[in-house]
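Task 17 of the worksheet. Students: predict the tertiary structure of the chain below and write it out as structure tokens. Keep your answer in the requested format; marks are given for formatting as well as content.
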Amino acid sequence: MIEMLRIENLALVESVELEFGGGLNVLTGETGAGKSIILNALALLTGGRASADTLRSGAEEGVVEALFRMDGHDDVASALADRGLANEEETSPNGPAELIVRRTLHAGGRSRARVGGQLVPVSTLVELFGGQLEISSQHGSQALRNAEVHAVALDAYANKTSLREIVSREVAGAARFDRELATLRSAEEERARRVDFLQYQQQELEGDDLDAESVSRLESEHRRLTHAEHLAEEMATVSRALDGGDSGGGTSDPGDSADSALGTARRALAGALRMDPSLEEMATSLETLESEVRDLAARAADYLAELEIDPRRLSSVEEKIGRLEALRRKYGRSVEDMLAHREQVEAELASLVGADVRIRELESERDQSIAAANEASSTLSRARARAAKKLAKAVEAELGDLAMNDARFVVSLAPATVEGGPTGLETGAGGRERPEFQFSANEGEAPRPIQKVASGGELSRLFLAVKNSLRRADRNMVIVFDEVDAGIGGATAERVGRVLAELATEHQVLCITHLPQIAAFADRHFVVRKESTGGRTRTLVVEVRDELRVEELARMAGGEHVTEVTREHARSLLQPK
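Model answer:
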């Protein structure tokens, strides 16, 4: 609810501050006093259009500021949190959280909005408060002229808001899965070509010998086979030099070998050792050297024995070396580069092959969402059919209390068009039908959409009848009525006042009226009047109580000349009803 409303420099208002309360708040005053300024100020808080003409003459800036009490409105708190907006006043032990909403207008045409002290786009006011502060006037009703609101209201009346949300969520999910499926399938041909290409690369790089050690062995073997004849010659020379033996099919002089020379040295050193024992260590070293030379000679002989000059093996190795060089040119000079590329290929293949798995998963998820949406919407349709009849009956009863006995009210449930959705989906996000409120004010006329048939006064009373029928289902913070009393009087006016008071048991209601029968039902009564000082006219708003309220009701009932009779009539209106 609005706890406080402050207006500065709008039209005739220089500065007013109104402290509203719960229940029914009534504003009265003579025609032209400026009651509509209050209505315009409230419209600005819901994101209504503003212009420099709205400002008081000579003012550079106009302000509308409201203090909202947020108790019982978790949906608004959630919407604030989603936008990163915090309440300016946190919940305290003394009362519920409060929220300050401010709209400023500038002479240059600029407009600014703040919520909880934070600057926001004006459109945010529409999103946050468009459905929380509803205004009904002779010029139209925000709620009744919006068919989408009809569906929301009907579902709330049927206590099926959560079911409607399920339908909306599942329809959105099915559409999202379907779009992702379409994207994956549209790329399926290209994906197949890519898979073939990657699989070819994978096969090229899958050799068991594609590792650093195997490649090193292959290159070593290639060098050995390529130079086998020269190796044989060199190693034969090594063998002859070490032991003087026949290593290549020829003969050699053993006296020229290292083994022979070492033997000669060993024998000479043995003779010297007998004469000088200090040569023992040298003799031992020489013996070790002689053993190592014999070992080297044996290894050289073994190498020569195993060395092959095999042209066929060389051809096979050269073929492998050629394939290796081709892979290096394509995938990297080092083995590490080629292995890294192979890992990339395998990872991409896994993701592409995984797309087929994802397609099957998406198909399953989409089908589940479609089934859930169809089932929930079917249940919602049955609930709507029952609630539509019940709501129509309740609204017609309310219209009868408002002196519209011939009026008819119908909730039409025309099938909703479902186009472009996934195959098998039988509902739109709002359900299988499009609820629409239809109205006929006169007997014999077929009900038609409200915006096409209802006059200003009829629309205001229809809005009141609908709102009162929905009063326990709606979640409005504030409902505003402007001249709901147009074209009525007497007993009908009292009925309207009674219905307003009944509606105000569930909502904060603000009502602008000229009829004392309606004003008498107010929990708080404000009088709007003009005064002129210093050559300027300004609008004032004051709350009236007790005898001041009696005087205002008497003025409304009797005109400019208030008599004791009209005062007594005013007092009688204030008696408990």
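Marker's comment: Residues 306 and 571 are 131 Å apart (CA to CA). The longest strand covers residues 524-533.
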